[in-house]
Amino acid sequence: MNRLFNHWSNSEGIDDDRGIVVIVPGLAGGVNEPQVRSLAQHLLSKGKHVAVLNCRGCCRTPITTPYLTSALDTDDLRLLVDLLHLRFPNQKIHLVGVSFGGVLITNYICEEADVGNGGIVTSVISICKPEDFMNADHHLTTTYFGKVFDKATAFFLSKMLKNNRKVLSQLDFCGEKEIMESCKIESGREFADKFTCKFAGFPSADSYLMAASPIIRTLKIKTPMLILNSLDDPIIGSHYPYFDVLHNPYLYMATCDLGGHYAFVQNGGDFWYCDVVVDFVDAFDDLIDSNGDIDDGGFHPKQTDFRERVVLY
């Protein structure tokens, strides 16, 4: 990160007001993905500063601590955002998350809202994020394209384990035997049950998938957010929180008839959402007060106790 900061400080300056956009790719993804590169190019062509936060262990970047990414592991993103805000306090920071990356940025801004730090990030955009992991998992295991994607995801996750086995072997559940046998895993749910849930501190895949689903946090979001989804998504389905979005003045959700999963490919080969993201980020320069104040009409959802408070694990 120091190299990135030095580059921006020396060659691009830190006194401009062009804004910083942090792109968070999907599961096992990184800056190598065509969609991420295209989005970054569109933003750069409009003068934005762009950073991509690769998933842990991806893009030939070995991990140095015995931990892989889970949907609840927001500390890497938090560290990056905090450092950007500290180093460039006058820059607006926008987050764009695609697929699994959309889950990470959603869970992150909800955690920040809980501790009163919601003002650091100016806006958030998610593209084809799974809202309900349990429903998405059902879609993966019951549709043809879902099954193909599920098996491919399990392969990449297993490969990531093996590539980082030297560091991960410090963990009880990531011994040489467990890591080598991970190549037999054929679904993301099985991988989550054997590894991801333990990284996140849960006893099973089901408990982890329920707790990590952003759909249970929709009303906690207090950062302006654009949610882009497609109704024909073959990977995560179309179980979207329409009513919760209507209740939250910080949210706008757009669903398209066509688009697939994180695709939206146009006739010329480019991706439709790239211009949408650029326009949304640019709109804050024209429509939002410079101090970032937003009139939300006193939006403050409350949950009352019902018989008992349920604390999981």
Automatic annotation (TrEMBL):
The active site is at S99 (charge relay system), D233 (charge relay system), H261 (charge relay system). GO terms for biological process: medium-chain fatty acid biosynthetic process; medium-chain fatty acid catabolic process. Transmembrane segments: none annotated. One of its GO terms (molecular function) is monoacylglycerol lipase activity. Residues 20-135 form the AB hydrolase-1 domain. Belongs to the AB hydrolase superfamily. AB hydrolase 4 family. This is Unnamed protein product. It comes from Ambrosiozyma monospora (Yeast).
